C-alpha cells in the first residue's frame, strides 16, 4: 500500500512536469475517451506560456536520465507515441555533465583490481558523458610492447539505484494506463516498460555490452566493408568496458568524408546492406545506428560503436522480414499477406484477400514514383498502420527493427540523396531467401529436424521415468485428495444431521411450551 502511494506521488510529479513543459501537446484528444479528454484539457491549461518546439524532449530531460532513456526507447516505438512524437524524441540528447575524474579512476581501480597508473600508460579526462556512463581515452602497452590507444567506458556512480526506482514508478504508471484505457492493452504498455527495464539492466552491465561487440564481430568477420572495435577483456568488468579506439570520420560529416577520398554513395549502400545482413542473415543487429555511432575508418570501412541497445530476430521474424521486403519489390502482395498469416501475426478470422488488398494500397504507389523518392522505412511504417486494422498485436522486436531502419535510411540518404533503397536491399534479401528457402536451406532444415527427433528419441527413457514418477505422484495426491474429500463429506453429513436434530428438538420444545 505504501509503495503504491509513493509510485502514485511520483506519477503525479511526472504528469505535472509533462504538463508544465508542454509534453502533452502530442496527445491526440480525438483518440481518447471522454474522461481522459477532460484530464488532457486540464493538463494543457497548466502549460507554461511561451513554450517553443521540442516540448517532449525538454519535459523528459527535466525529469532526469531515466526518462531521457525512456524517451529514446519510445523513439523506437512510433506505434505507441505516433510518428510526430517519435521524430521529436529522436532529438533527445543523452548528454550530461561528466562526473569527476577521481571518481572515474576509483571506479576503474575497483573494477579491474589494479591501480590506474599500473594498468595504463595514461588515462585521460572524459571525452563524452551520458546518463549511464562516460568515455575516457587511455593508452596501454600491448603484448608485443606496442603503445595502443583504447577507449574506456566507465559506469556513472549511483545510476543503478536511480534507474531501479524510476522503473518501479513506470511499471505502476503502465498499470494505471491499462486500467484507465483498456484498449491500450493492444500496445502492451507493461511489456514496453519491461523491455526497457531489460534493456537498461543489460546496458548497465558493461560485460554484456562487450559480449554484444564480440558476437557482432564474430558474425561479421567475413564482411570486408564493416567492422566493430575489438573489446579488451583484460580491462572489462561490470562497471568498465575497454575497447579499441576508433580513429575515423563520423558519417554526419559528408564534406570530411569526400575530402578524405571516400565514396559517400558507396558508403550509403554499405550502411543499408550491412544493417540488413545483420538483421536478416544473423538475427542480431545494432539498434542505435544514428550518425554519432557510425564512422568510416581510413580504409573506407564502416565502423559502429556503442552497443548498449541491440536487437534480435528469430528465424521466423527474419523470414517474415525478408519475404515482405521481396514481396514489395516484386509486387507480390498476396504473398506479403500470406506471410503475415503464416507467421501468426494476423488472426486467422480475417481474410487473406482483404489483407492483400490493404497491402496493395501501400505497395502500388511505390511503383508510381522515382526510386529516390521511395522510402523503405515509410513503407514499413504504413504496413504496421494497416496491420493495426487487422488486429495485429504489437511485435516489439519488429517495431524496433522498423525504427532502426528509419534511422539507417536517413543516414544512407544523407550520404546519397538519390539512393535507391529497394535496389540496394534486394541482393541481401534475395541471397538470404535463396540460401534458406532453396535446396541447401531445405537440407539444413531437414537436418535440424532429424537432430531434434533424435534428441527426442534419446530422451524417451528419461521422459518415461519422469512421466511415471509424475503419474505416481498424481495418483498418490489424488488418493489423498479423495480421502480428504471423503472426510469433508462425513464431517458435513454429521454437521447437517446434528443441526437438523437440534432444530427438531428446538421445534418440539417450542411446541410443547405452546401446548401448556
UniProtKB/TrEMBL annotation:
<comment type="pathway">
    <text>Cofactor biosynthesis; ubiquinone biosynthesis [regulation].</text>
</comment>
<dbReference type="Pfam" id="PF03109">
    <property type="entry name" value="ABC1"/>
</dbReference>
<feature type="transmembrane region" description="Helical">
    <location>
        <begin position="496"/>
        <end position="515"/>
    </location>
</feature>
<keyword id="KW-0067">ATP-binding</keyword>
<keyword id="KW-0547">Nucleotide-binding</keyword>
<comment type="similarity">
    <text>Belongs to the protein kinase superfamily. ADCK protein kinase family.</text>
</comment>
<dbReference type="InterPro" id="IPR004147">
    <property type="entry name" value="ABC1_dom"/>
</dbReference>
<keyword id="KW-0831">Ubiquinone biosynthesis</keyword>
<dbReference type="InterPro" id="IPR011009">
    <property type="entry name" value="Kinase-like_dom_sf"/>
</dbReference>
<feature type="domain" description="ABC1 atypical kinase-like">
    <location>
        <begin position="91"/>
        <end position="340"/>
    </location>
</feature>
<dbReference type="GO" id="GO:0005524">
    <property type="term" value="F:ATP binding"/>
</dbReference>
<dbReference type="GO" id="GO:0006744">
    <property type="term" value="P:ubiquinone biosynthetic process"/>
</dbReference>
<keyword id="KW-1003">Cell membrane</keyword>
<dbReference type="InterPro" id="IPR045308">
    <property type="entry name" value="UbiB_bact"/>
</dbReference>
<dbReference type="GO" id="GO:0016301">
    <property type="term" value="F:kinase activity"/>
</dbReference>
<keyword id="KW-1133">Transmembrane helix</keyword>
<keyword id="KW-0997">Cell inner membrane</keyword>
<keyword id="KW-0812">Transmembrane</keyword>
<protein>
    <submittedName>
        <fullName>2-polyprenylphenol 6-hydroxylase</fullName>
    </submittedName>
</protein>
<dbReference type="InterPro" id="IPR010232">
    <property type="entry name" value="UbiB"/>
</dbReference>
<keyword id="KW-0808">Transferase</keyword>
<keyword id="KW-0472">Membrane</keyword>
<dbReference type="InterPro" id="IPR050154">
    <property type="entry name" value="UbiB_kinase"/>
</dbReference>
<keyword id="KW-0418">Kinase</keyword>
Amino acid at each position: 500500500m505504501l509503495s503504491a502511494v509513493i509510485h502514485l506521488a511520483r506519477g503525479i510529479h511526472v504528469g505535472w512536469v509533462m504538463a508544465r513543459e508542454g509534453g502533452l501537446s502530442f496527445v491526440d484528444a480525438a483518440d481518447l475517451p471522454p474522461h481522459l479528454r477532460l484530464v488532457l484539457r486540464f493538463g494543457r491549461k497548466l502549460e507554461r506560456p511561451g513554450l517553443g518546439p521540442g516540448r517532449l524532449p525538454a519535459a523528459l530531460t527535466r525529469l532526469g536520465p531515466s526518462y531521457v532513456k525512456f524517451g529514446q526507447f519510445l523513439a523506437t516505438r512510433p506505434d505507441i507515441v505516433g510518428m510526430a512524437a517519435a521524430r521529436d524524441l529522436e532529438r533527445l540528447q543523452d548528454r550530461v555533465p561528466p562526473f569527476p575524474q577521481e571518481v572515474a579512476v576509483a571506479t576503474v581501480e575497483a573494477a579491474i583490481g589494479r591501480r590506474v597508473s599500473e594498468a595504463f600508460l595514461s588515462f585521460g579526462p572524459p571525452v563524452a558523458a551520458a546518463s549511464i556512463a562516460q568515455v575516457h581515452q587511455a593508452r596501454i602497452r600491448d603484448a608485443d610492447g606496442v603503445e595502443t590507444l583504447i577507449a574506456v567506458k566507465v559506469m556513472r556512480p549511483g545510476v543503478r539505484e536511480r534507474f531501479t526506482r524510476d522503473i518501479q514508478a513506470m511499471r505502476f504508471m503502465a498499470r494505471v494506463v491499462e486500467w484507465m484505457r483498456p484498449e491500450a492493452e493492444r500496445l502492451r504498455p507493461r511489456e514496453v516498460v519491461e523491455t526497457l527495464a531489460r534493456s537498461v539492466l543489460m546496458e548497465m552491465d558493461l560485460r554484456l555490452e562487450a559480449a554484444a561487440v564480440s558476437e557482432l564481430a564474430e558474425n561479421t568477420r567475413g564482411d570486408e566493408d564493416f567492422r566493430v572495435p575489438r573489446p579488451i577483456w583484460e580491462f572489462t568488468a561490470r562497471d568498465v568496458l575497454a575497447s579499441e579506439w576508433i580513429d575515423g570520420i563520423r558519417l554526419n560529416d559528408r564534406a570530411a568524408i569526400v575530402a578524405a577520398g571516400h565514396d559517400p554513395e558507396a558508403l550509403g549502400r554499405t550502411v543499408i546492406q550491412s544493417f540488413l545482413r545483420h538483421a536478416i542473415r544473423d538475427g542480431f543487429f545494432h539498434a542505435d545506428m544514428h550518425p554519432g555511432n557510425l564512422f568510416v575508418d581510413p580504409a573506407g570501412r564502416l565502423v559502429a560503436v556503442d552497443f548498449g541497445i541491440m536487437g534480435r530476430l528469430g528465424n521466423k521474424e527474419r523470414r517474415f522480414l525478408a519475404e515482405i521486403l521481396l514481396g514489395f519489390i516484386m509486387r507480390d502482395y498476396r504473398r506479403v499477406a500470406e506471410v503475415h498469416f503464416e507467421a501468426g501475426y494476423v488472426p486467422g478470422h480475417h481474410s487473406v484477400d482483404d489483407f492483400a488488398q490493404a497491402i496493395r494500397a501501400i505497395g502500388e504507389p511505390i511503383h508510381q514514383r522515382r526510386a529516390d523518392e521511395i522510402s523503405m522505412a515509410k513503407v514499413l511504417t504504413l504496413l504496421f498502420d494497416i496491420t493495426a486494422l487487422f488486429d495485429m498485436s504489437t511485435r516489439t522486436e519488429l517495431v524496433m527493427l522498423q525504427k532502426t531502419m528509419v534511422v539507417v535510411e536517413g543516414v544512407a540518404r544523407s550520404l546519397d540523396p538519390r539512393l535507391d533503397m529497394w535496389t540496394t536491399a534486394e541482393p541481401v534479401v534475395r541471397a538470404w531467401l535463396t540460401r534458406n528457402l532453396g535446396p541447401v536451406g531445405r537440407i539444413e532444415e531437414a537436418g535440424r529436424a532429424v537432430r531434434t527427433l533424435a534428441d527426442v528419441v534419446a530422451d524417451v527413457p528419461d521422459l518415461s521415468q519422469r512421466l511415471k514418477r509424475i503419474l505416481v505422484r498424481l495418483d498418490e495426491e489424488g488418493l489423498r485428495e479423495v480421502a480428504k474429500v471423503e472426510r469433508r463429506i462425513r464431517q458435513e453429513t454429521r454437521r447437517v444431521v446434528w443441526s437438523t436434530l437440534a432444530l427438531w428438538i428446538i421445534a418440539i420444545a417450542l411446541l410443547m411450551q405452546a401446548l401448556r
